[in-house]
Amino acid sequence: MIAHSGSNADQSPTPPGPRPGAGLGDRLIAAGLITESQLELAHREQRRRGGMLSRILVDLGLVSGDQLSQFLAKEAEAGLVDLSRVVIDQAVLDLVPVEVCRKLRALPVARINGAVTIAMADPMNVVAIDTLHHLTGLRVEVATATEQDILAFLDNLQSGGETIQESIDEIIQGEDGEAARLATKEEVDLAAASQDEAPIIRLVNQIIARAVNIGASDVHFEPEDKMMRIRVRLDGNLYPDVLIPKSLQSPVTTRVKILADMDVAETRLPQDGRATVYVGRRQINLRVSSLPTSFGENIVVRILSNGAMLTTIGSLGMSSEVEKELRDAIDRPHGVLIVTGPTGSGKSTTLYAILREVSGTDVSTFTLEDPVEYRMPGVRQTQIKEEIGLTFSAGLRTLLRQDPDIILVGETRDTETAQLMVRAALTGHLVFTTLHTNDAPGAVPRLIDMGVEPFLLPEALIGVLAQRLVRRVCEKCREPIADPARMFHLLGLTPPEGVPLQLWRGRGCPVCKNSGYRGRMGIFELMILDARFHEPIMNRAGAPEYARLARERGMKTLYEDGLRRAFAGQTTLEEVLRVTRAG
Questions:
Q1: What's the sign of the alpha-carbon dihedral 441, 443, 449, 453?
Q2: How far apart are CA 505 and CA 512, in angstroms?
Q3: Number of other residues whose CB lies within 10 A of the CB of residue 235
Q4: Which of 279, 229, 274 lies closest to 369 in space, CA to CA?
Q5: Of 106, 151, 381, 103, which is closest to residue 278 (Cα–Cα)?
Q6: Which of 5, 205, 382, 449 could cross-link to 314 by cystine, CB 3.0-4.6 Å?
Q7: Angle between helices 199-213 and 249-259 (to 10 degrees)
Q8: β-strands 461-473, 517-528: how paired?
């Protein structure tokens, strides 16, 4: 579920409400989601090619599918449903024929007593609601999902098709091994254009599609002595998926490299590539990396979920105090805000959520990224290419001549980038960046070590947000722990005073693959600088001094924020300890 973000604290007049009986476009203008000129563009495109206005707006990138769903859900006072995370009983799906679901852009998701909950792309479609009521004979309770997710779910429902193992068997049994000999781009393109999809293409598509459908973040193609092992990363952990015969290693590797537009003939050097695939009707962006090993090329495919691009600050799960302080920080006209954490801790998701809040038609927003993971409408995004000299520092130097208001520097890696970033903040720009430190207080001495003059930092640095990802307790098998105080003592920790102790764990079930966890969420610590930090910075104090000052101001550490989540039954104490290394 995606929470609604807070309102901007600007002084512009509130747009007038829509007139009675106003169409979707006028209502979106009144809500501030699109402008009149954008609506005129959408109407011109609609007259040119036909179709629903909502689809045109999404296709043009003027609003996202999730933004539209949030807006319609709020209008209809209907809840949002994330179809990628619900398990729908077959008996519920059978209530409405697939063809009717597709026509009405609706999907039955639950049945309780005499009511059926229907996820609809347009929850205000009273004709569709009436049709569904007569068809099912049940009271219809309306929820909202994106049209894209509904159609993707229906496509997956109807696809059926072969399993991965059946595809492997078909290739092995191919005459003279011809099915396995797919080596050149021309052959793959020819096979892809034919009506019958080549077996190797189908196999790789099935592997990637299955990873996308279960919510994996990465697919590992790992060559070994006698086989190729496929593993998927789910909620931060790697799980075995399928074993592929050694004879298929080369064609599978070749297919993935062709998909990512990499050099098939080059097997001695590491390569990086990108690809866009479709799983059902969902467009999925992939980042592909190959690395030569003793048994062949190891390939890792990163699945770039569009959910990160659509995340809002309100849906990150911060405490109300941290969220308010963060919003106050990004409302400042200039300065540097740093997000820190290890690789895979959700920094990009947080930064994109921040950019969604601050970018708009009245400001000029630029990013320097390596790589550009998600495309954002209205934001000029530049891909770093160090091999041709386009580094973060070189890009930032040029970008400052492009009249920017807001700048995102994907990562501060070197002295020149750090110095330019600070000087940009001092000359009236709002700058966001990432840094690799263990916690928020550690960012200040790290910047000084990188060559930033201490006297510049107090005026330039707004604050530092540190974060980690912890696994969520599976809601299907969650149960309370009988003696939470004993759990603290077993782990060598002191229970916090004045807080009711209640801990939870996941028993393990088929939904969570018996792990007890399903999904991940962030824990945060936010250090906001004030006048008290000036003297310690000038004296080049260590991180403990900044931590002390931040705690005096009310900062909660990563461990303390994790405890908040654990007491709420959202994660476990062991998981918090794993990512924070407390105690």
A1: negative
A2: 12
A3: 19
A4: 274
A5: 151
A6: 5
A7: 70
A8: antiparallel
